[in-house]
Amino acid sequence: MLRIEEVTKKYKGGKIAVDNFSLDIKKGEFICIIGPSGCGKTTTMKMINRLIEPTSGRILVNDEDMLKQDAVKLRRKIGYVIQQIGLFPHMTIGENISLVPRLLKWTSTEKDKRAEELLELVEMPKEFLDRYPHELSGGQQQRIGVLRALAANPPLILMDEPFGALDPITRDALQEEFKRLQRSLDKTIVFVTHDMDEAIKLADRIVIMKDGKIVQVDSPEEILRNPANEFVEDFIGKERLLQGRPNVQTISQVMSKNPISITGKQTPATALRVMKEARVDSLLVTDESGLLKGYIDLEAIDRNRSLDSIDTLIKPSLYKVEEHSLLRDTIQRLLKRGVNYAPVVTESGH
Ligand code: ADP
Ligand code: MG
């Protein structure tokens, strides 16, 4: 459905942001592009959406060359959700949703009907149409951002870190909701993230990028099982670590640094203080018997200082990796790179 052929982007000044990128995407596929900041993800998305011209290469949607199409035709084919939420603050939610239909010269009746239909998809009341973006929560605004991309019912949706700015709880909810929506609407999705958890949860195939180049393209399971090289291994290392079921003792032995133990009932402020004293970036969450249940990172706690307890910030482990030796290797590698973990036991066994 989408074919990217040997696409390269060289910015003025000589920076090669995307280097000979080729990928074939099937209809209905959910592709996640992931890689560290600056590796060329946004540049790739902007080229697909024709916001910037590739220096060389071709991009085809259903065998039609996107680089030769006019803007209106392109809008029928591609919906775009940008990295910042990007709703226009002076426009109502209804006007924001109807931007592309307006460009396509739909009648007011058509536009209104479609906007109401879209709100129903995410179970938001139609009264929201007359509100302004600042009257909505971050999560609600991002739902509208997604609806706006769906408005003219394009077969291809591009999403550039759409949930990156949201708190972990809202992000989780939106990921679930969006995955369901995508299945029912049968869209082809290209989704950029730097969060491996998110990619594993959503993608049919994951494209891992580094310095403008594709390093590996595979299903999440295959990437976890057979990382192409050390870069991919390192990149997924943190997530893989969190998918194991070590006991506290295993982790403590390996870490031997500063294992700390606090309960999930602690306030964010206490957790932050304890973590800073122990110099740890993340807490591994285990139950009383030492089974790994999930993790919390410092950043998430920092962003949610007003919560009563850190219990709700726990991100569950997604996969079960039974091989402890693998887990031990991963922890050791992370420790070498200066990333510290500490086990935390929650009272609730959460
Ligand atoms: P990502 O989205 O993966 O963080 P980008 O595609 O935004 O990466 O950027 C890739 C590289 O291209 C970075 O090194 C960035 O500094 C550079 N870059 C991005 N936009 C421009 C631009 N308009 N002019 C020059 N260099 C740019
Ligand atoms: Mg980007």
TrEMBL record:
Residues 255-312, 314-350 form the CBS domain. Residues 2-236 form the ABC transporter domain. Gene3D superfamilies: CBS-domain, P-loop containing nucleotide triphosphate hydrolases. It is a peripheral membrane protein. It catalyses: a quaternary ammonium(out) + ATP + H2O = a quaternary ammonium(in) + ADP + phosphate + H(+). Keywords: ATP-binding, CBS domain, Cell inner membrane, Cell membrane, Membrane, Nucleotide-binding, Repeat, Transport. SMART domains: AAA (SM00382), CBS (SM00116). It is an enzyme of class 7 (translocase). Its EC number is 7.6.2.9. It holds the Pfam family ABC_tran. The complex is probably composed of two ATP-binding proteins, two transmembrane proteins and a solute-binding protein. This is Quaternary amine transport ATP-binding protein. It comes from Alkalicoccobacillus murimartini.
